[in-house]
Amino acid sequence: MQLIVTAISKDYGDIAAVRQVSFQINSGDIFALLGPNGAGKSSIIRMLVGMTRPDSGSILVSHQHEHYDHVPRRLLGYLPEDRGLYPDKSIEKNLLYLAQLHGLSKQKALQEMAHWLEVFELTDRRQEDLKQLSKGNQQKVQLIAAVLHQPALVILDEPFSGLDPINQEKVVGFLKALKARGMTVILSAHQMAMVEKLADHMLLMAQGKAILAGTLADIQQQAGPQRQMVLSCAGPVTAEQLQQWLPELEIELLNSNRFALKLTATQSVSGTLKQLVNQLELTQVEMQTADLHQLYLMAMAQHQLREQA
Asked: What does CATH list as the number for 2-86+147-221?
């Protein structure tokens, strides 16, 4: 399974939902669509699954030497933003019905169901009606429903929604298991720490545009992120002293003898240290790079500045 999206755009009346967005997803990748509400993520997903068509640009889906302009239903596992199971039916009846809609035999559906119910610790509750479950457990059933038929591509819109931290980690394991089975995964999520653990590639969007794209390392390079030094010294120091010695740097005093300095790409680590060693006895120096959450916030801020210019 490979997807090549080339310069797609989509308007809804006067609203430009997606503007000239391009990306590629290779077989077995976990690909993350990131961005605030209204960025265009759901519009892209609707075009990928064939619910809508691009106004311009193209979508090419290749699978086993066949080519399509959207992901065929038989190859797709989909967790939509608006969930849609039957609350008055049991977990087993819900999953069996949906699996058979995808063409699975009852025997194969029960086999796959048993595996995933065990993964999500729901085996003993399979005969309970869905309405009896917590929101988090209903979400687990939704995730199972999306993959029972072993699709080539799984699209998950906010898969961590409604889950506590322990169950979010279970979903991380679930997604890694899908990758190990050779499935290609597209996920749209706001939990940056989860995405950072999982995504092979990602696309960061704002107001319908692609802002940053690639691996985490690619995005760090594109964003030109600030590097952060965390330093400890033998004696106390004040923010005023630090600002006097290093007036060009952004400084955060963490405690009386520990502080953080943010360096831009043009500011030298060695030069900064030379400025400090004459003033302080440094006991520890630690370099930190921006995580995905920080990169996301920086990219959004930079985009807003460009749009206002």
From this structure: 3.40.50.300
